[in-house]
Amino acid sequence: MARRVLPGLPLALGITLVYVSIIIALPLGALIFKAASLGFEDYWRIVTSGRALASYRVTMLSALVATIFNTIFGLALAWVLVRYKFPGRRLIDALVDLPFALPTAVAGIALTTLFAQNGWFGSFLSNFGIKVAYTPLGIMVAMAFTSIPFIVRTVQPVLEDLDPALEEAAQSLGASDISIFRRVVLPLLTPAILAGVSLSFARSLGEFGAIIFIAGNQPFQTEITALLTFIRLEEYDYQAAAAIASVLLITAFVMLAVTNILQARALRYTARN
């Protein structure tokens, strides 16, 4: 009698495929079908309108800046949580997951309260002429807050599993701390960092609830693409909403595809070394 790798695999596989079809494939298919119902000229006119292009610029630039910040700060935070023991470490480790548990609308209200000109942080920053709430900077703050766990949680397990003998061997050969990190640790962390970066950027592109409260939502200035899609839905212009949303969908897919290619190359490099 042939033995299956996993007991009940056909049933588990069937349930998985049904779940993926209903939760993921069906909504994406409906979005693509609705956008495809437009002619090419109408589709191109909608996705290249001045307001749409401005929303792409605001969304992409804000997501890029937030992802860069998260990459640097998230890597440092993961390093501290793994390599150092200090009072309150477990509390900080638990707070990393707060953006996952906190409703995004609540996060947006909290960030707006903190960074408004009369808020705790906003009043301090206003002394230096820095305005966060209702500016593109506020969008970046909201994106960074909601997406930083992706960086920390993808890098942290890899750091925990790193063999200390590799760093000790490099240190015994006279390598400096910076050289050890750059030549020994960073190449091993690169696949995890790329995975976290792609997830963080994709989450920032699609973030909505945490941004609309702090952005100000001014067309051509602080209006993100997700909000413009929502506005088209409220206007019952479903085809235009689908067309604009498809741009974000395509961008996210391209980002994930490029990241997977880079991850595969990084893994091959790590395996060779």
Work out the radius of gyration: 22 Å
How many E-type strands? 0
Structural class: mainly alpha
Major beta sheet summary:
none
Shape: globular
Q: Average pLDDT value? A: 86
Terminal-residue CA separation: 43 Å
Count of DSSP-assigned helices: 13
Estimate the helix proportion, in percent: over 70%
Poorly predicted regions are: none
Order of helices and strands: HHHHHHHHHHHHH
Question: Strand share of the residues?
Answer: under 5%
Summarize the structure.
With 273 residues, this protein is an all-alpha fold. The protein has helices spanning 9-36, 40-47, 50-83, 89-95, 98-101, 104-115, 120-126, 136-161, 164-172, 177-206, 209-215, 225-234, 238-272. The mean pLDDT is 86.
Description:
This protein has helices at residues 9-36, 40-47, 50-83, 89-95, 98-101, 104-115, 120-126, 136-161, 164-172, 177-206, 209-215, 225-234, 238-272. It starts with 8 loop residues before the first helix and ends with a helix. The longest helix has 35 residues, at 238-272. The radius of gyration is 22 Å and the shape is globular. It has 273 residues and is an all-alpha fold. It is built from 13 helices and no strands.
Descriptive keywords:
273 residues; mainly alpha; 79% helix; globular
